Each structure stands twice: as structure tokens, then as C-alpha cells.
Amino acid sequence: MALSINVASLAFSLNRTFGLYEKQDRLHLLRRTFIALQLGRKLQLSKEEMENLFLYSLVDEEHLLFKDRKVMGQIFEIIFLAEKVADKLRRRKVCIFTKNKIKKYLIDEYKEMGTVCALLELMEKEAFWFNLEEEFLFLDILKLTMGWEKLNILAEEELKRVNVLIAKLIDNKDLLTRRHSQRVAKLAVKISEELKLSKEQISKIEFASILHDIGKLAIPTKILNKPGKLTEVEFLLMKSHPFYTFKLFEDIGGLEDICKWAGYHHEKLDGSGYPFKVNEKDLDLEARIIQVADITAAVMEKRSYRNPMNVAQVIEILETDVQNHKIDGDIVRITEKILKEREEIQLY
Ligand SMILES: [Fe+2]
Ligand SMILES: [Fe+2]
């Protein structure tokens, strides 16, 4: 099932996500993308080629996510050169000082490449170097990609690869809850199937479930992986993770629903959750499914300060939340049925 998403904005969000994960890399990727796009424009690439150039240089370092798109050799050559230049600029604030050194390097090493001449011409303009400074980069790239709204179908295979990538990023950071997002997604999909939701709805729910804790990338690793209970201050910081999840995906055309469903996973029906304090009016069926799947998966997982709970204990927790008007009773009933039927399946 293809999902309609503005892939350009998704690419920006993934780039921001990498920024939360590894600050230095983000600037590097932005620089690489900007150089590649300038060069592509100078070489008069077609719109489709420019779009692919953008996706590959901004997010897809290993060419894994969008590998089904047709990419010609010239695009790889452009990205290769942009990468070399951006690499020479690492940890430099003022780029123009390195102009002569980089030009000499390109002539010495890569003068046989067809695109080097065009790149050297671009480098003659002072503006090329000033544009690579951090404060202008994002806006400039945004300007270059404006009007690309048509680039908005994410094929099922691409979505899967984006899912795997995101899950891996979270896993690498949050050691205590390894594979948590995948478990939540699995259970949320099961609940949705029981509810006979459409295929498209289910694939959106799955995506939102994978994303729900992505905001944890903004939380210091020390807090995420702390053995034992968090202090009050640490818990307050921890509470920002659904806020970051929301922020990361807020502006992506086509992802408005997914952003809400994922960003609201710690909200409650009675308005007592966090961080937006929305209540049942704003909690769609899909958001409620992810909430219940998240709680269920979390209590069935081991934590450093407690053992995983068994099905009877999980049901007790869910029922108490229903009585207190925190989560949806109908969805809990379905979840209990799934848990009882599959008692032998370990969620942790
Ligand atoms: Fe969470
Ligand atoms: Fe979670």
C-alpha cells in the first residue's frame, strides 16, 4: 500500500532526526545536499533527476531507502564530489577560507571527472561559500526544493525501509527498550485488523507506531539508559519525547494524521496525559489504538527496576486505566482477547 507523503519534507524530517542523533552530521549532510543541488542545476538536470539527487544526498547515504528510483551515474558522481567538498569543510564555520585548498584538491584528484569543471566554476562565486554557512543552508535548500509537491508518493517498499531505519536509530540509542517500537507496531496492527480497518489505515497506524518514540533521540542517553527510577527532573525531561516526535513530523504534507497519532501516545482520554493535555475529543481511534499497544508492550517488557508483567497483570493495569477514563475500553477488550489467545507469544 503506497502512502501519500511529501517525500521532500520527509527527507528534511529525517535529516532533523539525524541532527538530534548526531549533531555534526546534520550540517555535513545539508552542505553536501546544497552543493549537489547547485551542481545539478548548473548541469541542467531534469526535475526528476534533481529530486533524486536531493533524496540521495540529504538522507540516503548508503542508497538504501530509495533504491528503486532510477538513478543515473551522473547523479552519483555529483553526490560523490559534493561529499568530498563537504568533508573538507567539516568543523569549519567560515567556508570561503578553504576555497583555494579545495579547488587544488579537486584538480589534483578528480580532474578527469566530467562534472569537476562545472563545480570549479561554481566555486568562483563568493556566494557559493557564504551559502554553506549554517544559518543560510536550510532555507536555501528549502527554496531550491519548493514546488516539488508532486514528489509525494512513498512506495510500500520505501516506507518499510524508512521504518527499519527509524527503528534502528531508536534502538541504538535506547538500549533498555530494544525493539519496543516494533512490538508496539505489531500489536497495533493486530488490534486494527480485529477492528477490520482498511489496509491503508493499518499501514498508517503501523508507521505511526514505529515513529511514536522517535522523540527519544532528543533525550540524553544517560537518562534513557539509566538503571533504576528517574528523578523528578529526569522524568520531566523524559516527558518531552512525544513533543519531539510531534515536532519532527509536524510540517510534512501527508503525515498530519500520523504526526498526531504518534505525538499523542502519552495523552489520556480525560486530558491528564502529556505533553499537550488533549482529551478524548482529539484522540482519534488510531491514536487510541497506539496508546493501548504502547502501554501493553511497555509493561510486558523488562525494565532494570522491574520484571516483565504477565498477561493477568497487564489486563489488571489496562482495566484500571479504563475505569479511570484514561484509555479506550473497546480497544482494551480487543487487546485482552489478543493477549489471551496468544498467551504463549512472548512480547519481550
Ligand atoms: Fe513514549
Ligand atoms: Fe513507547
CATH topology of the largest domain: Hypothetical protein af1432
CATH class descriptor of the largest domain? Mainly Alpha
What bound compounds does this protein have? fe (ii) ion
**Which percent range describes the beta-strand content?**
under 5%
Give the overall average pLDDT: 83
Give the fraction of residues assigned to helices: 55-70%
CATH architecture designation of the largest domain: Orthogonal Bundle
Protein name: HD-GYP domain-containing protein
GO molecular function: cyclic-nucleotide phosphodiesterase activity
Domain HD-GYP: 155-348
How would you characterize this protein structure?
This protein has 348 residues and is mostly helical. The chain folds into 2 domains: 3-153, no CATH class; 163-341, Hypothetical protein af1432 (Orthogonal Bundle). Helices cover 62% and strands 1% of the residues. The chain has 18 helices and 2 strands. The protein has a two-stranded antiparallel sheet with strand order 1-2. The chain is elongated, with a radius of gyration of 23 Å. It binds fe (ii) ion (FE2) (2 copies). Residues 213, 241-242, 265-266 line the site of one fe (ii) ion (FE2). One fe (ii) ion (FE2) binds at residues 180, 184, 212-213, 294, 298.
Any descriptors?
348 residues; elongated; binds fe (ii) ion; Hypothetical protein af1432; 18 helices; single chain; mainly alpha; 2 domains; two-stranded antiparallel sheet; 2 strands
List the topology elements.
Blueprint: E1 3-4, H1 7-21, H2 23-42, H3 47-58, H4 73-88, H5 99-110, H6 116-123, H7 126-130, H8 134-145, E2 153-154, H9 156-173, H10 180-194, H11 199-211, H12 221-224, H13 232-238, H14 241-249, H15 256-263, H16 285-300, H17 311-323, H18 329-341
Antiparallel strand pairs: 1-2
Bound molecules: fe (ii) ion (FE2) (2 copies).
Residues 180, 184, 212-213, 294, 298 line the site of one fe (ii) ion.
